[in-house]
TrEMBL record:
Gene3D superfamilies: P-loop containing nucleotide triphosphate hydrolases
Superkingdom of origin organism: Bacteria
Protein name: ABC transporter ATP-binding protein
Pfam family, one: ABC_tran
GO molecular function: ATP binding; ATP hydrolysis activity
SUPFAM superfamilies xref list: P-loop containing nucleoside triphosphate hydrolases (SSF52540)
PROSITE patterns: ABC_TRANSPORTER_2
ABC transporter domain: residues covered: 10-242
Length: 266
């Protein structure tokens, strides 16, 4: 972990979330979440389907309110979205009618950056993610991996302190996924941002994380937090890698069974 200050980048204090959809039974998604993310730390959220991982990201992003408890970023209570907290989804949510460079520049226009400077930043960011020769392409002219890199460039252009990623590589093929993981580690080091990444993949968690937060089945609670004490780049042939894999498989198995049992009973 390359924490630089003692103040957490994200502080999650006793957070509950109950969804109350109109005309439907309330859903208790998260209960009593309490953990911190250090500046520059890479935290992976791992847990069974429906345990509230995405819900947590939306609350940190300021897109949803907590039902109780407190979320702070850099010491300030989260009340609304901020450029300091970027969110990337499974499918790159780029505007299809804009070029890649204009997509990256778009958020900066909201911040009042001049058109010339926006273009400069967009080019710089797209070069950084290896898309320097794709500036004037539209999203549908790019592969899925390229689109995700463009989404990363757009988020990084805002210089976020926290970058949240909701299963960002789940839709990609195995080879592209592995390259994107290497790429992500590189931009994480370069940017100094904290990363919170949701995945269902145990291997992705071991390959990327400083710490893995394992959730219980719904309502999601922190089952345990496991630091990954392996040097990077992580090698799947390392016997300790296999020990982590066995540990996470065991930790998740009970929770996945519980989640299934609940779905069948519903
Ligand atoms: N907008 C919403 N309105 C009502 N209920 C919601 C809403 N969003 C999520 N939920 C419910 O909250 C629970 C947690 O959902 P969430 O998507 O956060 O879980 P998850 O762990 O990210 O799941 P998955 O791994 O399948 O993506 C689920 O039961 C879901 O149906």
């Amino acid at each position: 972990m390359n924490a630089r200050t003692s103040r957490p980048a994200v502080s999650i204090r006793n957070v509950d979330k109950v969804w109350t959809p109109e005309g439907r039974t309330p859903v208790r998604a998260l209960a009593g979440l309490d953990f911190d993310v250090a500046p520059g730390e890479f935290v992976v959220l791992l847990g069974p389907s429906g345990c509230g991982k995405s819900t947590l990201l939306y609350m940190i992003a300021g897109l949803e309110e907590t039902s109780s408890g407190l979320i702070e970023c850099d010491g300030l209570k989260v009340t609304e979205p901020s450029a300091e907290r970027g969110l990337i989804f499974q499918e790159a949510s780029l505007f299809p009618w804009l070029t890649i460079a204009d997509n990256v520049a778009f958020g900066l226009s909201v911040q009042g950056v001049s058109p010339v400077r926006r273009r400069e930043i967009a080019i710089e960011m797209l070069k950084r993610v290896g898309l320097g020769d794709m500036l004037d392409k539209k999203p549908d002219e790019l592969s899925g991996g390229m689109r995700q890199r463009a989404a990363c460039a757009r988020a990084l252009a805002m210089k976020p302190k926290v970058l949240m990623m909701d299963e960002p590589f789940a839709a990609l093929d195995v080879q592209t996924r592995s390259r994107m993981q290497d790429f992500l580690l590189q931009i994480w080091k370069d940017s100094g941002a904290s990363i919170l990444l949701v995945t269902h993949s145990i291997d992705e968690a071991i390959s990327l994380a400083d710490r893995v937060v394992v959730f219980t089945a719904r309502p999601g609670r922190v089952k345990t937090i496991v630091p990954i004490d392996l040097p990077r780049p992580r090698q799947s042939r390392d016997p300790r890698y296999h020990e982590y894999r066995d540990l996470f498989t065991e930790l998740l198995a009970d929770e996945v069974d519980r989640a299934f049992a609940e779905q069948e009973a519903a």
